[in-house]
UniProtKB/TrEMBL annotation:
Organism of provenance: Candidatus Corynebacterium gallistercoris
Gene3D superfamilies per record: ABC transporter involved in vitamin B12 uptake, BtuC (1.10.3470.10)
InterPro entries xrefs: ABC_BtuC-like, ABC_TroCD
Ranges annotated as spanning the membrane: 26-52, 64-90, 102-121, 142-168, 188-215, 227-250, 256-275
Protein name: Metal ABC transporter permease
Keywords: Membrane, Transmembrane, Transmembrane helix, Transport
Entry-linked Pfam families: ABC-3 (PF00950)
Amino acid sequence: MRVSELVDSLLHVLAEPLNYSFTWRAVLAASVMAVVAGLLSCWLVLVGWSLMGDAISHAILPGVVIAHLVGAPFAVGALAASLLAVWLVGAVRERTTLRPDTSIGIVFTSMFAGGLVLISATPSASHLQEILFGNLLGISDAALVQAVGFGAAALLVMLACARAWTLWAFDASFAAAIGMRVWLVRGLLTVCMACVVVASVQAVGVILVVAMLITPGAVAYLLTRRFAVMLLVAPVVAWASAMVGIWVSFWADVSTGGTIVLVQACVFAVVYVAAPREGVLQLRSRSHASS
């Protein structure tokens, strides 16, 4: 095959999906989701809140079903359920001697199970099963507006709280000592996480959304120790993974959300092996050099 033919074939692969309006909606939704989730993932990785993100993403399911039953926007139910889950986790943690991960596991599995029961018991809610796995290429205009709205709200909260979150993440004791309201800082991070989950759930579903909240930050953490650089790297990784995932899923006719998460996993695997500071190859070479 000549070079010109190869270039033409490549351009066709890249341009063909853009002939469809649903691809443009998916690109816009994924871009918003990637930027906000990528930024937030940096703080979540630093404070070790990956399990909390998993809890919130699973806990929204009963809220979505109840919102459907009463005719309310599903985003309202999802946000209410996520905040309820956070309150329940805090209540169990404060009133018992259980470890935090235990209380989180109990709450999110219970609420997720409740959502599954509601779906199976409500025939009109059967179509909500796509909330479990996402449907980015089939996202509606209303869902797109919702994703952009919640993503913008989360971005505004991040811009307002970035300095406070960073100080708290690096030294919570010092933050409390200088008079920072740590409970408020932690609460705003939780609310922001809930907004990002609601914005992202249409794309990748409640089961995979936690990957969007953790993997970009983990990749950035392995590549650099400068937090400002992490805040640049993580959204780029998330956005690039989303774009590649959309194109691959279009041509392979497979789950878009699952493909995006798999692309992120591949990026993490490459960085895990080849990162210049903490990659497996670099650590092994240092070990050989010191021996």
